[in-house]
Amino acid sequence: MTLPPPIDQTAAWRALVAHATAVRNHHLRDLFIADSERFAKLSFRCGDLLLDLSRQRIEAETLELLLDLAREAQVETWRDRMLRGEHINITEDRAVLHTALRLPADATLTVDDIDIVAQVQRELERMAEIIAAIRDGSWRGITEKPFRHVVCMGIGGSDLGPRMALEALNADRDTDIAVHCVSNVDGTDIARTLEKCEAETTLFVVASKTFTTQETMANAETARAWLQEKLGPGIIDWPRHFMGISANTAVPGKFGIPPHQVLQFWDWVGGRYSLWSAIGFPIALGIGMENFRSLLAGAHAMDRHFVGAPLHENLPVLMALAGVWNINFLGLTSLAVLPYDQSLCKLAPYLQQADMESNGKSVDRWGRPLGYATGPIVFGEPGTNGQHAFYQLLHQGPQPVAADFIVPLKSRYPLGRHHDILLANAFAQAEALMRGRTRAEAEVELHAAGLSPEQVAMLAPHKVFPGNRPSTTIALPKLDPYHFGMLIALYEHKIFVQGILWGVNSFDQWGVELGKQLAKPILEELTDAAAQHLHDAATSALISLARSQPRS
Ligand code: F6P
Hints:
Elements: H1 11-23, H2 28-34, H3 38-42, E1 43-46, E2 49-52, H4 60-72, H5 75-84, E3 110-111, E4 114-115, H6 116-135, E5 149-153, H7 160-168, E6 178-182, H8 187-194, E7 202-207, H9 214-231, E8 242-246, H10 251-255, E9 262-264, H11 281-287, H12 289-308, H13 315-329, E10 334-339, H14 347-359, E11 377-380, H15 391-396, E12 402-410, H16 418-435, H17 439-448, H18 453-459, E13 471-478, H19 481-502, H20 513-527, H21 537-547
Parallel strand pairs: 5-6, 5-7, 7-8, 8-9, 10-11, 10-12, 12-13
Antiparallel strand pairs: 1-2, 2-13, 3-4
The structure holds 6-O-phosphono-beta-D-fructofuranose.
């Protein structure tokens, strides 16, 4: 097989390098002055979701060259291969079909001779039945009390999506059953959660694609022990308080969970793309099946757009290209995720996994080392909180950072002037990052404030903002299940397209292995005084220090 050249060896890439040199010093402020149609030309829509790229450092030629790069990388061919169910996750020999989880019930997709849509719909039905039984109290605990608390235990992709969505869609909650999420192996997490629960009315949900993840299994064992302690050590009926969610459906049985209390998903659903599957059970429990289906429908609308829109109007493609332009040609390797909605407080942690676990790779699909940066360092916090924390660096730090502003135009919690103040801040921050403030402008302001020439000279340099800091604005009518689904699918496809552009496999995560492997002998040493393994001096010293401490 002849391998394609690494993307940075192609004419399309080289043209972008030359173009970046030519436009590097162009300032966004001037680009806006020069073209009053800039917003109209560089903002794009999928339904009523708006993607504004006009504050990216993109010019007409930049966009053409970036689209050439997308064609060179065969983005559309790879997209179609993914959607057909080809095993594009080559290192794990798996299809990548999270999009099938949100296909409508009357769609058809047969992969490896299996009717995927029917399979997905059956599991959705099972999920609906289980949720109905929990909500109407027909599934009860062993003392016949209905469940009031549901504790979901999972980590990474088996936690971050549901956790984020439960926060994001809190306005749509239609049950008073409390849904808690526990992920960390630090006992603090489960201990503090159990403090809020009562054994007789608590249902535990163990969510793990593999059902072998150390953190989740440790939490599940602690939950089982807690239940047995509270309800009588002899209880044999404890499994009535447990549900499993896994792609490895034989294993929950070994833990003691009967098959009718296990929801299934499949190896073609990547962990970090799984909130649409049975992993989304806590979401559906919290907001109801109808809302959950609306979430799926929103994501599906974005899928249809991704499949059908030409590259130059395709939101995920354009967003991906803007990111690659920033990272590889302008040297902006970090991405601040700035949702102006408190309900999106878990979006940044979610995207950290979705983006960094997908594209934080150093070799391409064929194992060749990459000569360029890949996934951005993602961080973020809702506005306006972030403004009073790290925005100082965004505005004046010498290392520019790209930003995504996510702005629901209407609040789900309308209250006096709050939303107008929030929107004003979002728009102002993007404007400030773009235009900055020149030395001359700073001096005029200081003079106008009545400062002496000496004070003006002293303060002016501190008041200069370089500007020209690129940002994208994503505006949604409001944060309801449908638009939230669209938003997350937009990011998923952006990440996919970037993976294709960089030539990496976005669907494996070998980088998480080594630490897990090394933790095993260390755990042995921490718990067994006789155990000893070879380590570097720092690791050995820390193990000795920990061993020398009293246990509690
Ligand atoms: O951190 C590695 C990882 O494999 C993630 O990709 C995954 O989402 C997480 O662990 C949890 O895995 P599981 O769902 O199998 O417990």
